[in-house]
Amino acid sequence: MNNIERLQKTLNYTFTNEQLLMQALCHRSYGTPNNERLEFVGDGILDYAIAMMLYNAFPDTPEGELSKMRASMVNQTSLNEIAQEVKLGECIMLGDGEQNNGGRRRPSILADALEAIFAAISIDSSPLKAIEVIYNLFTNKVKHAKKLLHVDGKSNLQEYLQSIGAHTPVYNVINTKGPDHDTTFNIECVISELNIRLTATGKTKKEASQNAAQLILKKLEQQTKNQKGSK
After folding, report:
1. Which pTM was predicted?
2. How many CB atoms lie under 10 A from the CB of residue 65?
3. 47 is catalytic
4. What CA–CA distances, in Å, run from 101 to 29, 30, 98?
5. Coil, strand or helix: which one is 201?
6. 55: closest CA among 150, 144, 142?
7. Residue ranges in the chain modelled with pLDDT below 70
8. Which end of the chain is more exposed for a tag (fewer CB within 10 A), N or C?
9. What is the pLDDT of residues 28-86, one digit of tens each?
């Protein structure tokens, strides 16, 4: 069994048009057609699927917490974990430069390819089939979604910055508000070399720092997607 056959078996989905799968696995460094347009579609499908999974799994959870849970699952770190589980790196097609630079292990490449696969399944069959595959892959994460609310955003941000060769962020307390028994902390996260600074609040310094880190990570990931889309 080759890697492509193994991947389809792991996903529990066999493509009618295998060329769609091959395109989903094709990084832009390899050539065209590549997976960038598919990744754009797959990102939307994944957002919807995870939102519905959380909506059904946690009927009494307010919108704010559902949004945080979805953010903890629909990000590069989470997608990279799923991609590693299905051994996606063994299947991706890369140009020589990217291959020699460890592209098969690069979280951004793996995450994008996984989203592209969701789009490819949707086109090959239907959006419902793509959602079914997503359900199977993310069931365990949804079960523990409440715990993911407390994911270490600072560590995730640090991992991301290391992957792009950037320095460690700096966290500064901007101000505090409220009495001692009900204090709100306002903390700024700064990445000087990227000219990025964002602030967030929390009931403790740790919570505010984590929230600021998550905001920065979201911004960086969105910038990466926008840059790719403009090429």
Report:
1. 0.69
2. 15
3. no
4. 12, 14, 5
5. strand
6. 142
7. 148-152, 181, 227-231
8. C
9. 999 889 999 999 999 999 999 999 999 999 999 888 888 878 887 888 888 989 999 99
Fold category of 3-148 in CATH: Ribonuclease iii, N-terminal Endonuclease Domain; Chain A (1.10.1520)
CB distance 152 to 131 below 8 Å: no
Q: Is 188 a catalytic residue?
A: no
Count CB atoms within 10 A of the CB of residue 1.
Answer: 8
Question: Tell me, what's the pLDDT at 228?
Answer: 64
The alpha-helical segments, DSSP class H, found in the chain are 3-11, 18-24, 36-57, 63-73, 76-85, 96-100, 107-124, 127-143, 145-148, 153-163, 205-230
Domain 153-230 classification at class level: alpha beta
Start-end of CATH 1.10.1520.10 domains in the chain: 3-148
| Catalytic entry in 43, 112, 124, 188 | 43
